Amino acid sequence: MPAPLPTAPPGTVYLRRKSPSHAPSPLSIGVLLYPHFQALDVFGPLDALNILSEDHPLTLSLIARTLEPMRTSSGTFTQLVLPTHTFDTAPPLDVLLVPGGPGARSPDMQPVVDYIASVYPSLKYLISVCTGAPLVARTGLVDGMRATTNKRAWEWVTGQRPQVKWVAHARWVVDGKWWSSSGVSAGIDVAFAWISHVWGEEVAEDASLKMEYTRWKDSTRDPFAESYGLSRGNSAEATEVGMHGHGETMLE
Predict the structure, then answer these.
(1) pLDDT tens for residues 37-86?
(2) Between residues 58 and 238, the one the model is more confident about
(3) How far apart are CA 152 and CA 224, in angstroms?
(4) 192: closest CA among 201, 183, 168, 184?
């Protein structure tokens, strides 16, 4: 049998990790789509995974309520993405990516929340980007866990589920299987952090070089928290253990 995938202990925020001694089994990746999702929330992490898949086998499912094309963002300058599966036909997943976007505020999102709740127990990892985090939070399955989200939407997000321990000053946060990132572009950073966790830092660094992307590696600092005036008193904050630039930063 293949070796099990590594799991993060509760409350861990990873900066980098040494290469694991084994390669994980092929992973089944699902991306959740809904009308007016944020394009970069999906395509930033996906491009990192596209590059990763050149050397590490992955399968991809684009999952939505229906097979109708899903429109990005809002307004008139948008793109259409075709789902490959519905909530009823999606295969078993190892990883689910939940993006944010204007559509996350729609009053019609309960079926999306219900789908997340239905697959969460069997997932190895759930990655939320931006305002995808409140969709995860609304399942009620992550109460008491730490997470972060888009800082511009901070007040709205944290009001969706106060039972989650929202961390303002974090680019991304890991608590158990839930990897949550700050807004939009932070999805790329959490994707590379996750790649480093599963396949090792060398693999993550190689993929970022191919992408010509400069990674943000300090998970405990988000400059946009400062831009939007969020103090450390706004949230359950990270407590650092160990040295900067080495190993991991832990949440107590």
Answers:
(1) 999 999 999 999 999 999 999 999 999 999 999 999 888 899 999 999 99
(2) 58
(3) 8
(4) 201
- Tokens 């359950």 appear where? 236
What pTM was estimated for this model as a whole?
0.85
Q: Which two tokens stand for residue 50?
A: 């596209």
Q: For 62, what's the count of Cα atoms within 13 Å in the CB-facing half-sphere?
A: 16
Q: Say which residue the tokens 């084994």 belong to.
A: 22
